[in-house]
Specification:
By secondary structure, the protein is α/β, with parallel strands linked by helices. The model has no long low-confidence stretch (mean pLDDT 96). It has a single domain, classed as 3-Layer(aba) Sandwich (Rossmann fold). InterPro entries: AB_hydrolase_fold, Hydrolase_4, UCP037442_abhydr.
């Protein structure tokens, strides 16, 4: 097992956080991994170890408001997709290049992390070796199977209202995410209603950026995951028509654990093997 190191980051707007790095002695590539909503970076350490054992230097990102982040959302501290895409992810990527320069750079994410990874891939100007998506997909309500999808528009209206009223979304209490910034929930819910990615106060056209992504994309969904069904991932992949994506649907039998949104994180060996097999 590779030792975990901490890389301190300060974003352009002063936000401070740490990357958890798992760097093998002979790294063949680097990966910036973006967590799901409300999930701290440390929960992906088994996944990072599985990839590092195969030569991938993994850097686990920390979202604002989680884990090592210097900020917590409340009435006085708010942010949305803009701050994550414009400040935090470029700072994290720069730190990776400074830590292990000269390696092919890969980007990936779980759930919301996969969505924002696609958005960020469309904003970048440098080469991207691969884009890896796990249990992700657009939250657009029409991409979900019936009957659940008919309830989603209600959630996409209620959760931003609740976050605005309370100053932040109490995700643990409502069963969705952690304590989340109201601007973040507003940006996420807008995609859920419209299937159009945009960030409040960000001039960049995120949809146009994703259409330019031509890097190889490997996507994995799980057949018992109601939070990220195959149709949701397919709609996300359709936003990157130049990428020639490969979509894999894994079962509980293949994983050796329940094939849902979170169980793979504790036994990630099959997920890591699938990603690596299709990136050779």
């Amino acid at each position: 097992m590779n030792a975990t190191a901490r890389v301190s980051i300060t974003s352009a707007d002063g936000h401070q956080f740490e990357l958890l790095s798992h760097v093998p002695e002979q790294a063949t590539a680097s990966l910036l991994w973006l967590p799901a909503l409300g999930i701290a970076a440390r929960h992906y350490q088994p996944f990072a170890d599985a990839l590092a054992a195969k030569g991938i230097a993994v850097f686990l990102h920390e979202w604002r408001g989680n884990g090592s982040s210097s900020l917590r959302p409340n009435r006085h501290h708010d942010w949305g997709y803009k701050e994550l895409l414009q400040y935090d992810l470029p700072a994290a990527e720069a730190a990776i290049y400074a830590t292990i320069p000269g390696r092919p750079f890969r980007l990936g994410g779980h759930s919301l992390g996969g969505q924002l990874g696609c958005c960020y891939a469309g904003l970048r100007t440098g080469d991207l070796d691969a884009l890896w998506l796990i249990a992700s997909g657009t939250p657009w309500w029409r991409s979900f199977p019936a009957p659940r999808r008919y309830l989603l528009p209600l959630a996409y209206r209620f959760l931003p209202w609740l976050a605005q009223r309370l100053g932040a979304l109490p995700g643990r209490r409502v069963g969705f995410g952690g304590t989340e910034a109201r601007g973040l929930i507003h940006d996420w819910a807008r995609v859920g209603l419209s299937n159009h990615y945009a960030a409040r106060d960000l001039a960049n056209d995120l949809e146009a950026g994703m259409r330019t992504v031509s890097t190889p994309v490997s996507a994995i969904v799980f057949n018992r995951d109601w939070l990220a069904p195959a149709g949701s991932m397919q709609q996300l992949l359709a936003k990157m028509p130049a990428s020639k994506p490969m979509l894999h649907v894994l079962s509980s039998q293949q994983l050796g654990t329940r094939a849902d949104h979170f169980h793979w994180m504790k036994t990630p060996q099959q997920v890591a093997a699938t990603l690596l097999r299709h990136n050779d």
